[in-house]
Amino acid sequence: MTELHDRTADQRWEQTFEGPDGQSGRVWADYAIEGDRRAILHVEADDALRGTGAAGRFMQALADHARAANIRLTPRCGYAVAWFKRHPDHADLLG
Known about the structure:
With about 100 residues, this protein is of the alpha+beta class.
């Protein structure tokens, strides 16, 4: 697993994980800037990482990044909405 990267020019966060076959794959989230918030528009994982928990680990890294950078998040993607519902300890990040 690599660190989470904010590709600001592309408005995308991404992170690389090792899949079960030893190959690297990415998880990413596209976002829109809305004032001091970032709206999470879409979260996706490479096919090789689906079902491995990589997307959940990515969301945890994203929450940690947002907290450290003082960024408020607005989940719009169904996966991000569901993740935040399952992790109410991160509700302080939502705006």
